[in-house]
Amino acid sequence: MNHKPFLENEDQFIVSYELLYILQWLMMYEKDALAALVHNAFIQGSQLSHGYVNDENSQEADDLQNSVIDFFSFLEEEVQNISQAESMKHIMQKNLLKTLDHIDPKIFDPAIIKASMMATAENVGPKRNHQAKDYFLKQLLRKWTPKKDQNKKHIRN
């Protein structure tokens, strides 16, 4: 695993504030679940270890120390991935909510609107987020089956 962005120099590493807040939240609200996880890991891990590491086996000691860096690197990557995904979801929702404000719910069935939203969320990736509105409207029109009586009412009003 690549430790360079995580390590500040040879003997120190940096932990993001986001990860620190998550760890604090875990301690406050998921302490029992975290304790159970540590308990299970200890039981499983103690079966793998052959006692304490002595100075003669410095490679094993280095590997154990690197596992801490690997663990925090993994956590940092997960926080970054979740942050990016949530950011994109927020942007997409914001764009689509503006579009939904312009759709007359009397013309379109709520199930069609929902299905169009779901199709847009599944098919529009982060790189094409700017196309979410167009894709949503295309999906909406594909699924829509106009009814003559309903359209006459809207034209007269």
Please describe what this structure looks like:
A hairpin with a 2-residue loop joins strand 1 and strand 2. The longest helix is centred in the middle third of the chain and has 43 residues, at 58-100. It contains six helices and two strands, in the order ββαααααα. The protein folds into two domains: 1-48 and 58-87, no CATH class; 103-157, no CATH class. Helix content is 69%, strand content 3%. By secondary structure, it is mainly alpha-helical. Helix 4 packs across helix 5. The chain has a two-stranded antiparallel ribbon with strand order 1-2. It has helices spanning 17-29, 31-48, 58-100, 110-123, 132-143, 148-156, and strands at 7-9, 12-13.
Percent of sequence in beta strands: under 5%
Please report the distance between the alpha carbons of the first and last residues. 66 Å
* Unreliable stretches: none
Structural class: mainly alpha
Please compute the radius of gyration using only Cα atoms: 26 Å
Strand order of the largest sheet: 1-2
Fraction of residues in helix: 55-70%
- Distinct helical segment count: 6
Overall 3D form: elongated
Total number of domains:
2
Number of strands: 2
Helix and strand element order: EEHHHHHH
Assembly annotation: single chain
User: Could you report the average pLDDT, rounded to the nearest whole number?
Assistant: 77
Largest sheet entry: 2 strands, antiparallel
